[in-house]
Amino acid sequence: MKRYIIFIILFFLASCQTLGSLGFIEEDPRAPKKVDRSFPSFLSEKWSKVEYAPLISFQSEQDKYKTNHVLKIINDQIYRLKSDSLIINDLNNGRLFSEFALETNKIVAGVSVGYKTFIYSDSDGTIYAHELSDGELRWKLNLKDLVVSEALITSRSVFVQTSSDILYAINLRNGEIEWTKSAQSPLLSIRGTASPYFYEGLIFSSFSNGRLAALRSTDGIQLWERPISVLKGSTELEKLMDSDTTPIAFDDSIYVANYNGSLTRFDIRTGDKIFSVDFSTSKDLILFRDLLIGVSNDDEIIAFDAINGSTRWKNDNFMFRDLTTLSLLDGDLYFGDLDGFLHLVDADSGEIKGINRTSLGAINQVSTNNNSLAATDISGKLKLFEIF
């Protein structure tokens, strides 16, 4: 009897495999691709911390908002946010260097660091600017609208973009609004916004309507505004042209990509389109020599020629693995994935060079500096590795 039962079970399992191979049982086409673990390790762990809660829930589980807690490595210090304080650790040993109390525990975006200032925003739409020397609050400004992207800090101003597609220029010293730029929001957009980009006295900002604007940083006078890509369908989903990628400049050109759209190169002064190639992403691009490298919505890593837009290489070994934004260091690309793996890929060729399995959960940010790599996961755990 036992043999008969075992035979039936084995026959059933074999039938399932046969049906799957024949196409009767449909496999998930978006299942994460399995990683090849045969590549060598390239990291050794130095220290780790678990200190902050990185998610704020709005209304329901379906509306859970992934906060933009940006990890910053500056010189030999690492800046990060807890739920109610800014933590500054020594990069080499993890020793606490400074801890400054924040004005809120409902942080949505930050930390931005620059010009002796650190900045963050909360779920009530308030921007906070603190002195980096002692943590004292310099000013706060309630915009009554979510700011979910990293603030841009220049020597004179702070630039932030709200979820309602309003770009603000704010005086760095006193928090007064200097000028604003509004864009018409579409019916459907990605929950997120791009960070503004500063280059040679100009501010470049991409909006959820799929357009890129160039403005003078001093007074907000608009020089030009252009669509990043053309509409490709008739439904609201097909018309989704939101751009959540920060523009990037190279060779008198400005480059930007959008969701369900294109990677486009514009003349930085006139706004004339130089080329546009099919590429959909919501992650920032990396510039390496004459290559623009990005992660597509399907987690395919693609390198484009920055001059003519041709594809120089592709790597599809990590598709649907929910990759982080790429981090570039000394000609290599570093990034993490949904299973806590950290990966190393050659930026010039796209070839895989290394892989590390960590004890992290789904990794949401990777940052590199000197010979160090910092990675955080969605639970708030931080690990610092030495690259060898």
Strand order of the largest sheet: 4-9-10-11-12
Percent of residues in helical segments?
Answer: under 10%
Structural class: mainly beta
> Which percent range describes the beta-strand content?
over 45%
What best-fitting shape do the alpha-carbon axes yield? globular
Uncertain segments: 5-15, 17-22, 54-65, 236-240
Structure, described:
It is a single chain. The protein has 388 residues and is mainly β. The chain is globular and about 55 Å long. Helices cover 5% and strands 46% of the residues. About 9% of the residues have low confidence. Strands 4-9-10-11-12 form a five-stranded mixed β-sheet, with no helix packed on it. It has a four-stranded antiparallel β-sheet with strand order 1-35-34-33, with no helix packed on it. Strands 5-6-7-8 form a four-stranded antiparallel β-sheet, with no helix packed on it.
Please tag this protein with its features.
388 residues, mainly beta, five-stranded mixed β-sheet, four-stranded antiparallel β-sheet, 35 strands, 5% helix, 46% strand, globular
What is the fold's blueprint, element by element?
Elements: H1 2-22, E1 43-50, E2 55-57, E3 64-66, E4 68-69, E5 72-74, E6 77-81, E7 85-90, E8 96-101, E9 107-114, E10 117-122, E11 126-131, E12 137-142, E13 152-153, E14 157-161, E15 166-171, E16 177-182, E17 197-199, E18 202-206, E19 211-216, E20 222-227, E21 248-250, E22 253-257, E23 262-267, E24 273-278, E25 286-288, E26 291-295, E27 301-305, E28 311-315, E29 327-329, E30 332-336, E31 341-346, E32 352-357, E33 363-369, E34 372-377, E35 381-387
Parallel strand pairs: 4-9
Antiparallel strand pairs: 1-35, 2-3, 5-6, 6-7, 7-8, 9-10, 10-11, 11-12, 13-14, 14-15, 15-16, 17-18, 18-19, 19-20, 21-22, 22-23, 23-24, 25-26, 26-27, 27-28, 29-30, 30-31, 31-32, 33-34, 34-35
